[in-house]
Task: inverse folding
């Protein structure tokens, strides 16, 4: 007897994406470029984060036609974003047959207190996190994959590195604590003690973790991988660069061969200009995306 | 699954010295490594032609077939892999791995290694919302049904030239054996059941002699 949408098959799809690159795309043509460059999945969007940041206004789930055309264009998995807490956008994307939903702080949140209860869905979810407590709350809600948030659309890796180091440091600290301290730690982290115990024992999250938000070059991707990420999301960094097809391929190869500087060197040659980056302190506070989500 | 011939020379099976590789470009590599450790063999991550030379058998994990097929060509692994398979090294592909090993992929011009005499259909059961767990009857596998984990899984449309289907779902082939080669649509590495890994280790042991 067949059982669909189990925790194992939801988390399992994320496991199949490991050591891969997931790319933001806005058209079927971009999706094909991403697939040919070796992306393991694409994120179908109406606007990349850099443009959302520039244009302002309320950012919602992408138009259905945009997502559908991208789904029709490629054979790799297609993801799409729903607003934080907007479980009806998620229901619509599931009905469309999307492969993965990103409940994302890049869109304007629909609910300022609660995230989506992701457990009843057949489709898996990925959620952003800045630290272990946030990651475990999302997993408790049913997230099948975690991505550190970084600062989307900034082209600046500094926030991504901060969040990645925070999560991995939090995990390392847990794994050396005596059993009797874990309940209090769970209280401080604001996450369920069962998950805290599981992480303390395994020395890792129970789901796959990627890095996102600010990756613009092959070296950025390799840096995240060397710091323990299991793969990368690249948003604006590809189609805001001078040579998207070449940059996409280079980031893919640097992600697979992150521990071989000769290959990272080779793929970094003659890429042209990467996307322009933003100094985080120059972004007005109310426009910072990473603080969204609770 | 047919019985593997026992190594005649060694008194103790030379399991400890067996080097079973896992193609470590992309996908669920660590899960296979953990399963091999559970079978008491030393796993080896294979990323270069030199790594490939050092192993007695190879697992190609789950992942994205377009991604990995490109990388095999780009980093000169396709030809040596093909040569090792021809000279009898056991290779087992799970899901993406089976697609990469197939002769043909329905409706696609993606490059494959052309090792398994099968035609596979990618994402044959549907998109992710059709991914499922299902217990499987496998020819030659004793005991309880095997926990099949299917994720955007392919199925085998047809098999020829010595490729033998060992298990079916909805009348479609989901496991194939052909001399030194094995392919599964599903992911034994995502379960606690190591029977298929143990079987593959025996294949590697027998081939090493």
Result:
């Amino acid at each position: 007897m067949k059982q669909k949408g189990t925790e194992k098959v939801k988390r399992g799809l994320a496991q199949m994406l490991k050591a891969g690159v997931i790319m933001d795309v806005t058209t079927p043509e971009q999706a094909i470029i991403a697939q040919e460059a070796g992306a393991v999945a694409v994120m179908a969007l109406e606007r990349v984060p850099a443009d959302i940041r520039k244009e302002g206004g309320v950012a919602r789930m992408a138009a259905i036609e945009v997502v559908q055309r991208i789904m029709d264009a490629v054979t790799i998995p297609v993801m799409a974003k729903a607003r934080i807490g907007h479980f009806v956008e998620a229901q619509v994307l599931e009905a469309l047959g999307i492969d993965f939903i990103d409940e994302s702080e890049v869109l304007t949140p629909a609910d300022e207190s609660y995230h989506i209860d992701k457990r009843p869905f057949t489709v898996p979810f990925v959620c952003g996190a800045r630290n272990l407590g946030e990651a475990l709350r999302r997993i408790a809600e049913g997230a099948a994959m975690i991505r550190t948030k970084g600062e989307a659309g900034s082209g600046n890796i500094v926030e991504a590195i901060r969040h990645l180091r925070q999560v991995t440091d939090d995990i390392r600290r847990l794994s050396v604590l005596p059993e009797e301290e874990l309940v209090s730690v769970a209280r401080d982290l604001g996450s369920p003690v069962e998950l805290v115990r599981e992480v303390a024992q395994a020395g890792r999250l129970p789901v796959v973790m990627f890095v996102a938000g600010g990756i613009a070059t092959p070296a950025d991707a390799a840096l995240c991988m060397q710091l323990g990420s299991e793969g990368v999301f690249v948003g604006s960094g590809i189609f805001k660069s001078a040579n998207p097809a070449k940059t996409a391929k280079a980031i893919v190869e640097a992600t697979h061969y992150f521990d071989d500087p000769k290959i990272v060197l080779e793929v970094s040659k003659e890429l042209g200009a990467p996307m322009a980056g933003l100094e985080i302190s120059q972004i007005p506070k109310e426009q910072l995306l990473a603080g969204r989500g609770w | 699954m047919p019985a593997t011939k026992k190594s005649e020379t060694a008194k103790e099976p030379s399991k400890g010295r067996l080097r079973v590789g896992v193609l470590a470009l992309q996908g669920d590599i660590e899960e296979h490594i953990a399963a091999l450790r559970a079978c008491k063999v030393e796993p080896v991550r294979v990323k270069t032609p030199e790594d490939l030379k050092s192993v007695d058998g190879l697992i190609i994990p789950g992942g994205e077939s377009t991604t990995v097929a490109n990388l095999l060509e780009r980093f000169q692994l396709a030809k040596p892999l093909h040569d090792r398979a021809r000279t009898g090294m056991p290779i087992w592909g799970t899901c993406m791995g089976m697609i990469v090993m197939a002769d043909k992929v329905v409706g696609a011009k993606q490059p494959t290694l052309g090792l398994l005499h099968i035609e596979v259909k990618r994402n044959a059961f549907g998109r992710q919302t059709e991914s499922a767990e299902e217990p499987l009857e496998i020819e030659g596998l004793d005991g309880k049904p095997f926990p099949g984990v299917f994720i955007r899984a392919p199925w085998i449309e047809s098999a020829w030239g010595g490729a033998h289907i060992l298990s079916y779902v909805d009348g479609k082939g989901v496991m194939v054996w052909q001399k030194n080669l094995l392919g599964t649509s599903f992911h034994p590495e995502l379960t606690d059941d190591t029977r298929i890994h143990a079987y593959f280790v025996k294949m590697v042991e027998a081939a090493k002699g």
Q: What stands out?
A: Chain B touches chain A at residues 24-31, 47, 62-64, 66-67, 70-71, 74-75, 95-96, 108, 122-123, 126-135, 149-152, 187, 190 (CB under 8 Å).
